[in-house]
Amino acid sequence: MTFSPPTAEDLGLYLGLDEIDGPRADLLLTQAVALCQSVVKPLPDEATAVVLSVAGRAYVNPQQVSYETIGPMSVQRPSGSGGLYLTKADKTVLKSLAGRGGAFTIDPTPATADASPTWPVDDTYGPGLEYEPGWGWV
């Protein structure tokens, strides 16, 4: 199966909203898919959850307000606020869904390898002879 991007209705259901601005939701979903494809391409079928999460963050909180006081009005926004973004967790999930990441082993030994030496054995060198420090086997 191929990845089918979620619809504006899916985003509204995900966010628990009765009404949703369709064109805005479609734009955010399209941009969220493009962001996700910058990490993994093609997107796996299960990537819908990440796409909805990314688009949902931008739909509900477009200016990324992280602190708000109603009292004499106070708001805090991070530098470079606004827009869609992928968290580290989003990237990790996308890679995991695509089958990337995790531990693996590569055996570089050819299938035709055997335990025999690949150099000529020299019986006149090594143990059995006298070893003199600084001079070696003599």
Poorly predicted regions are: none
Order of SSEs, N→C?
Answer: HHHEEHEE
Q: Total number of helical segments?
A: 4
Helix content: 25-40%
Rg (CA only): 30 Å
* Cα separation of the termini: 71 Å
Largest sheet: 2 strands, antiparallel
Could you tell me the mean pLDDT?
A: 81
Structural class: mainly alpha
Biggest sheet strand line-up: 1-2
In total, the number of strands is 4
- Overall spatial form: elongated
The proportion of residues in beta strands is 5-15%
Features:
single chain, 138 residues, mainly alpha, two-stranded antiparallel sheet, 7% strand, elongated
Summarize the structure in words.
With 138 residues, the chain is mostly helical. The protein contains four helices and four strands; from the N terminus they run αααββαββ. The protein has helices at 8-15, 22-37, 48-60, 88-97, and strands spanning 67-69, 74-76, 131-132, 136-137. The mean pLDDT is 81.
